[in-house]
Design a protein that fits this description.
By secondary structure, the protein is mainly alpha-helical. It is 76% helix and 0% strand. The protein contains 14 helices and no strands. Helix 3 (55-88) packs across helix 8 (141-152) and helix 10 (170-177) packs antiparallel against helix 11. The longest helix has 38 residues, at 243-280. The relative contact order is 0.13. The mean pLDDT is 85.
């Protein structure tokens, strides 16, 4: 019997759905992506490279990488800790913590940026104290990092929580019974079981950190050469009618997104391969050694 016998839809329905999905992908993903690269190269490769060699472009690239380099490790620590607590323990407030993890998905990034302005701005709650001690948060790198951390912290936790819940805690309990301490249990039992979910979450978190616009736009101040990340630099160039330069920088972001997609696909392929190998391993037989 065919593998498709379990479905009752006629062939034309399946073909229509496939065509609709492919058309949607082409219209809303591939076509805009092609337009970005086409506009970036409209005046030749030299003009695009010249736009990327500008000092302000290098400053935006450097700030974007610094922000991602700080944001991802912080969210890695938070994501693992939150997933461990939610998946392995029962405690009062567990549902509330789970809701807080999802909070950035329901709050607009612009609102998130305004929250930090309210807290650390010149007229904010901590603004006078920060000014008195000559500490800059808003319109400086710390504010950009804080806003980026807020909008990206669910990604790793949300990848790990269902994975840890599905795996249960039997293996960790067995390791503790056998004498392992907490760190040994995490390193040798928990981490190998969650490594691919962890890598997947880190990839998504890094991609969002480099491409975040709304929250960063509010707290950055758009100071050229100082607080502009790559998305903000694209906006400034486009508003100044420097379309080739704007699309050249945007194409760099698109390349980073494609690289992220390739890495994510590689991680998914490796995970499926490991799963298949694990399922194909024959069960261990008792040894026939003499006593």
């Amino acid at each position: 019997m065919s593998a498709r016998a379990g479905t009752s839809e006629p062939a034309w329905v399946r073909r229509s759905l496939i065509a609709l999905a492919l058309g949607f992908v082409f219209l809303f993903l591939l076509l805009p992506l092609a337009a970005v690269f086409t506009e970036a190269l409209r005046k030749g490769l030299g003009a695009a490279l010249e736009a990327l060699r500008e000092p302000e472009a290098w400053s935006a690239i450097r700030l974007t990488l610094i922000t991602a380099a700080i944001t991802v490790p912080l969210n890695l620590l938070f994501g693992v800790a939150a997933a461990w607590a939610i998946a392995k323990y029962e405690f009062k407030g567990k549902a509330f913590l789970t809701t807080l993890v999802d909070l950035p998905f329901s709050v607009s990034p612009v609102v998130a940026g305004l929250i930090y302005v309210l807290m650390f701005g010149a007229q904010g709650w901590f603004g006078p104290w920060l000014q008195a001690h000559d500490i800059k948060v808003i319109f400086a790198v710390p504010g950009i990092v804080l806003a980026t951390v807020f909008v990206t912290f669910p990604f790793i936790a949300r990848e790990l929580i269902p994975l840890m819940q599905a795996q249960g805690s039997e293996e960790e309990q067995a390791a503790l019974v056998l004498g392992a301490n907490g760190w040994q249990t995490f390193w040798h039992v928990t981490l190998p079981n969650i490594k691919w979910g962890l890598v997947y979450g880190v990839i998504l978190c890094n991609a969002r950190a480099m491409g975040e616009f709304g929250a960063v736009s509010v707290v950055s101040g758009h100071i050229r050469g100082q607080t502009n990340t790559l998305p903000l630099h694209v906006e400034i160039l486009y508003n100044e009618y420097q379309s080739v330069a704007a699309f050249a920088v945007a194409s760099l972001l698109a390349l980073l997104a494609l690289l992220t997609l390739l890495i994510k696909s590689g991680v998914a392929w490796q995970f499926e391969r490991d799963q298949k190998v694990a399922l194909e391993l024959p069960p261990e037989k008792p040894g026939n050694g003499t006593s």
